[in-house]
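Example 3.2
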Amino acid sequence: MPKRVVITGMGVAAPNAVGLSNFNNALKQMKSGIRFFSQLQDLNFSCQIAGKPEISKELLNEYFTPLQLRGLNSSGIVYGVISGVDAWNDAGLDILETESPDWDSGIIFGTGILGVDKFREAIHLIDEGKTRRLGSTSVVQTMASGISAYLGGILGCGNQVTTNSSACTTGTEAILMGFERIQSGKAKRMLVGSCSDHGPYIWGGFDAMRILPNKYNDDPEKASRPMSESASGFVPGSGAGALVLEDLDSALERGARIYCEVLGGEVNSGGQRAEGSMTAANNEAVIRCIQNALKNSEVDPNEIDSINGHLTATTRDSVEIENWTRALNRRGEDFPYINSLKGMTGHCLSASGSIECIASVLEIYNEYIFGNLNGEDKHPDILKLIDAESIPDTKIERKINILAKASFGFGDVNAVTIFKRYIT
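Structure, written as tokens:
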């Protein structure tokens, strides 16, 4: 029989809060983490605002030794290690100090690109003929699997330890990859998640594409406006999120706290056919992904209480809503609640899926639905499809039984995960 999979630990480094409790409070208070950065202004960016977790030196010293911090110049690794170790501790798991690793525990931790600032530093040193000054950690900081390697060594995991990369879909995909490994009995627990570097060398390409807002440099917190008529592009962000997935029997045996159950999901691609492209989703693929996620999870569309969408504050928001109505065959007042975290954090790129999944799980566990920041002027094309009440402007106290979380990424790749309240 397939194993049931539950979530027993979480950790997060998001633009609007670092640490799970802080993040939960930020969601309830609808706190924005989007700020102005003078560096972007100095570099002549059109969009001079972004979302970036605030990490103090004191906090860094709690997770890294002085030796590890020497030459560390990868923000994605910093965010990933903080969120991953926090998730492990939150699950009540020990960090092994033995010679033998934990053969039952593994890691799937994704990223888009890692160590861009370290790459830049390395290029200058190499071009100047100073290769020996690169240091011994330049490779691990710039290889994509550097984050899973870092965490694997810290936690002593002996099961599969790897990295996935699927643009904005990365974090949600990592959860489903870990889910399948546990469900099949190949692991008892998997630390899953994703991270993204911050800075101009990550965000510059998007600024060049003119898909970032440039009218809110003096009012950053108003800039990210999912499902809004006045939305003018997504605000770039960064950070990391991590979740401990565990075999239900293992969780019960050790008396672990259970946040919710993962019922299943689906990943697919639109093949960049029809209306699908490198930057836009194939609508048929999105609909199929949603419907197959429900089928794989044995959930009826009418059982969905809430949706945490991809919803980036672009012209694609109304198209995404239409795809949800077609996939669920629900519209108007029959449509479930739907929200987007990106109003508070911006679009955290490869970290977005994991951070937003954590927000979704917190909603289920703490019985509320967070409001959509800056969504007061709802797009008329969306209101033709669903009632305004389905898009809450403020927090709603409400018990959620089943929630669908979606991520749709560059390259026309999709992932949908179905979470359910755990009832003993």
